[in-house]
Amino acid sequence: MDSGVGGLTVAKEIIYQLPNEHIIYLGDTARCPYGPRPEEEVRRFTWEMAEFLYKQDIKMLVIACNTATAAALEEIRTAFDIPVIGVISPGARSAIKYTKNNHIGILGTAGTIKSEAYEHVLHSLKESIKTYPKACPKFVPLVESGEYNSSMAKKIVAETLSEMRQYPIDTLILGCTHYPLLQPLIEQYVGPKVKVISSGDETAREVSAILSYRGELHSRHEKKQNVFYTTGSPVIFGQVAREWMNDESIVVESVKLP
Amino acid sequence: MDSGVGGLTVAKEIIYQLPNEHIIYLGDTARCPYGPRPEEEVRRFTWEMAEFLYKQDIKMLVIACNTATAAALEEIRTAFDIPVIGVISPGARSAIKYTKNNHIGILGTAGTIKSEAYEHVLHSLKESIKTYPKACPKFVPLVESGEYNSSMAKKIVAETLSEMRQYPIDTLILGCTHYPLLQPLIEQYVGPKVKVISSGDETAREVSAILSYRGELHSRHEKKQNVFYTTGSPVIFGQVAREWMNDESIVVESVKLP
């Protein structure tokens, strides 16, 4: 689940790495973006999404939204009897693996950056890490409107990341699941010496590891269509989903929350 | 634990990614290599190592040896009340993430290749994967003798991998934890178009994910020296360990099994 289309970057990787698994996706597009909202509101929306999906008889829940993960992962994890995975720890773990100089940049929504959730995980794993956080409030609207390839996108990326280019970072975390759609522009701007980490890729791998650890991986493929729900208009959602997932067969259903 | 020094490649990554954790390493150098031994014997040796470490009050056991993982992971995992992680699934998962054309090469010991353990995991995750396995019986003795940089090593790598270069693979799994010490030579031989996967790196990440999932990560660093045991002579083991781990302070203790 995600505040909108961003979590599709995680779903895409899960489908690629675990094609035998059946995915039920929920994007809360009607109330996107979550980033600028008060934490209490994000927490409530996240619970509504979680309860909707829990009722679909799922075996694992992935909170594919950094803002929602920062606000509500721990309490949902405690309340549910299935594994609940967020996107922050996998992204942080991967950054620690890649950095050589321990200087890590973090891009995220206002909510994620304010929560200092990445700093918390990074420092609890490795105290010597230095972090360089930057809120990027213009990125999510760009992606949700399907404009992630435009010249405007290029301009906004350059403006937002100009100070990031001055820092001694060798690793940059895309701390929002919308940002991988801007990854080519971000990589071009920060240059080849900075390793850009997509939390989506890393989260998919942890989904696989934890299902495997619990002995709950599906070992056979069943021809069951993955399901995509949005709280908003299925039209733009469907366009982005079909293009980004490279799958013309995707059908998007509309749903109301709570 | 490993049949010898190979598992140090996994230990090194765990120490790098999780510097707050305390490592107890056991290398069964006296009976290395495991690769050419009958499965029943490998299983018995693996149990002996596992029981030795279990008595040290560990919270997780990593079987950092592909041959031992193939022979005994499942039964040790069932018997122990702590998480037991092998190196085969993490390597397979990572290969699936990286391959674009679904053609994956697998290098391993005779035992690992004969077990078809990688094929089993790869195909259960993704049926469409095509595998190209190759036993490399000369690699482990090279590494255990500390000769992994020599011109002889270069020659043996070229001889062993000549057919691998003919296959349409885009990803190559180093299915033995000794092989990362030969990784520069292997990468040079197969060329830049083939992504070489070290199961050690990937296993360290799964250790982190599973300890985090279980809420068992140490969040503070204690100045406690990691411990290294070998069943063989501590001299060569210590040389390889200090060079490979880049840590002059490593002391190796001798131990008898069972």
From TrEMBL, chains A, B:
Pathway: Cell wall biogenesis; peptidoglycan biosynthesis
Class of this enzyme: isomerase
PROSITE patterns recorded: ASP_GLU_RACEMASE_1, ASP_GLU_RACEMASE_2
Residues annotated as catalytic: C65, C176
Biological process terms in GO annotation: cell wall organization; peptidoglycan biosynthetic process; regulation of cell shape
Binding site for substrate: D2, S3, Y34, G35, N66, T67, T177, H178
A GO molecular-function descriptor: glutamate racemase activity
UniProt-listed Enzyme Commission number(s): 5.1.1.3
Matching InterPro entries: Asp/Glu/hydantoin_racemase, Asp/Glu_race, Asp/Glu_racemase_AS_1, Asp/Glu_racemase_AS_2, Glu_race
Keyword Cell wall biogenesis/degradation among record annotations: yes
Catalytic reactions on record: L-glutamate = D-glutamate
Keywords, sorted A to Z: Cell shape, Cell wall biogenesis/degradation, Isomerase, Peptidoglycan synthesis
Pfam families reported for this sequence: Asp_Glu_race (PF01177)
Keyword Cell wall biogenesis/degradation: yes
UniProt xrefs under SUPFAM superfamilies: Aspartate/glutamate racemase
Coiled coil: none
Function: Provides the (R)-glutamate required for cell wall biosynthesis.
Family membership noted in the UniProt record: Belongs to the aspartate/glutamate racemases family.
Protein name per UniProt: Glutamate racemase
